Amino acid sequence: MPAGTIRYWAAAKAAAGTAQEPYTAATLKEALDVVRDQHPGELTRVLQRCSFLIDGDPVGTRSHETVRLAEGGTVEVLPPFAGG
């Protein structure tokens, strides 16, 4: 199973209580399921509003179960930013 890094920004960082943490997951859905289990509460609510970059590429409207994660990859968790 691929392992990499999840990076949190702004409100997601505050809700997770960390700037980044490792993942071990094959898909974005699997990685986010683990994150929700590890950080119940505010982060779960923040994730509903976030967009995601996988190794610099936007996920957009793709289903999270179809987004494959790579060994050594990076998931960026980006909440909406004020001021665009």
Automatic annotation (TrEMBL):
InterPro entries associated with the record: Beta-grasp_dom_sf, Mopterin_synth/thiamin_S_b, ThiS/MoaD-like
Pfam families hit by this protein: ThiS
Domain of life according to the entry: Bacteria
Name this polypeptide is given: MoaD/ThiS family protein
Highest classification ranks of the organism: Bacteria, Bacillati, Actinomycetota, Actinomycetes, Kitasatosporales
